[in-house]
From TrEMBL:
<dbReference type="InterPro" id="IPR008254">
    <property type="entry name" value="Flavodoxin/NO_synth"/>
</dbReference>
<dbReference type="GO" id="GO:0006783">
    <property type="term" value="P:heme biosynthetic process"/>
</dbReference>
<protein>
    <recommendedName>
        <fullName>Flavodoxin-like domain-containing protein</fullName>
    </recommendedName>
</protein>
<feature type="domain" description="Flavodoxin-like">
    <location>
        <begin position="3"/>
        <end position="160"/>
    </location>
</feature>
<dbReference type="InterPro" id="IPR052200">
    <property type="entry name" value="Protoporphyrinogen_IX_DH"/>
</dbReference>
<dbReference type="GO" id="GO:0070819">
    <property type="term" value="F:menaquinone-dependent protoporphyrinogen oxidase activity"/>
</dbReference>
<dbReference type="InterPro" id="IPR026816">
    <property type="entry name" value="Flavodoxin_dom"/>
</dbReference>
<dbReference type="InterPro" id="IPR001226">
    <property type="entry name" value="Flavodoxin_CS"/>
</dbReference>
<dbReference type="GO" id="GO:0009055">
    <property type="term" value="F:electron transfer activity"/>
</dbReference>
<dbReference type="InterPro" id="IPR029039">
    <property type="entry name" value="Flavoprotein-like_sf"/>
</dbReference>
<dbReference type="Pfam" id="PF12724">
    <property type="entry name" value="Flavodoxin_5"/>
</dbReference>
<dbReference type="GO" id="GO:0010181">
    <property type="term" value="F:FMN binding"/>
</dbReference>
Length: 160
C-alpha cells in the first residue's frame, strides 16, 4: 500500500512526528511538506496521513487549502489525521477544527500527538507571546510517544 504523509510544520515538530510515524509503516512511503510543495499530486497513493501543527489555536493555512483543493481525491483514499500542539485544554476542539468534517468522518485514525516549544527556532515575537501566554521560558518537548504507538497500531491494522 503506497502511503504519503503530508504535513505542515512551522518549526519542525510536526515534521519530526511525521518521520516517527513513517519509520514504523510500509516501505512504500513518501513524506510531503506543504511548506515545500503547496499542492502535491496525490493520485498515486492509497493511504494519506495528514498532520498539522497548531499555533494560537489554529492549524496551518496551507493544510486547510490543501484539504479544500483536493477533496474529491482525498475522499477516495484511506485517511488518517494528526495534530501537534501544546494546548492540552483545547486540543480536542483544535483537532476538530484542523481538518474538514468530511475527513474526520472518513478517517481510520485520529490523534493528538503533543508538541514542543522550540525557542531556538522562534522569532522574537513568537518567543514573547509564548512566554506571556504559556509561562514557558525555554524549549520544552511534550511529544506523546504512547499516542504515536496507538495511532500506528490503528494504521497498521488497516488494509485496503
Amino acid at each position: 500500500m503506497k502511503t504519503a504523509i503530508i504535513y505542515y510544520s512551522k518549526h519542525g515538530t510536526t515534521e519530526r512526528v511525521a518521520h516517527l510515524i513513517g519509520e514504523k509503516l510500509s516501505p512504500e512511503l513518501e513524506y510531503i511538506s506543504l511548506k515545500e510543495f503547496h499542492n502535491p499530486d496525490i493520485q498515486g497513493y492509497d493511504r494519506i496521513i495528514l498532520g498539522t501543527s497548531i499555533y494560537a489555536g489554529y492549524p496551518g493555512r496551507l493544510m486547510s487549502k490543501f484539504c479544500n483543493k483536493n477533496r474529491a481525491q482525498l475522499e477516495q483514499k484511506i485517511i488518517a489525521l494528526f495534530i501537534c500542539g501544546m494546548n492540552d485544554t483545547q486540543e480536542v476542539e483544535q483537532l476538530k477544527k484542523a481538518f474538514p468534517e468530511y475527513l474526520h468522518s472518513n478517517a481510520v485514525a485520529e490523534a493528538i500527538l503533543g508538541g514542543e516549544f522550540l525557542f531556538d527556532k522562534m522569532n522574537f515575537i513568537e518567543k514573547f507571546i509564548t512566554r506571556k501566554i504559556s509561562k514557558v521560558v525555554c524549549s520544552v518537548s511534550n511529544l506523546r510517544y504512547d499516542a504515536i504507538t496507538v495511532f500506528l497500531d490503528k494504521m497498521n491494522n488497516i488494509r485496503k
